[in-house]
Amino acid sequence: MRLIIGREIIKMLIEMTKNANVEVCGFLLGRRDGEGVLVSEVRKVRNRLNSPSAFEMEPVEMVRVIDEAEERGLEVVGIFHSHLKCPPVPSERDLEGMRNWPVVWLIVTPEGEVRAWVLREGEVEEVEIVDERR
Asked: N or C: where does the chain have the smaller number of CB atoms within 10 Å of the terminal CB?
């Protein structure tokens, strides 16, 4: 599996993370293309836990973003969030979320580390991140 995403989107997510005191989170919107997931847009959603070490998206905002995406022919192809003080590897809490949202999970750190993950048959698998311009 590959996550096809523009370099500018990655830069924007890193900047968002650098300026945050709490984990940032939201949706990756786009479409699936065979073994690839093409990200065309990112939508930030408020972290209702307001925590530097955990996130939970605000439900009303989540529904609004999903509805707007569907109206425009896009789907939720991933979830992004930041890890402010640990590596971009899924935590136990992330694994719970991955079971509920079986899409690509992109994790970003303020230092600019970016990794993507998916849960396949109960196992965490790293996803290759590819610049969309290739």
From this structure: C
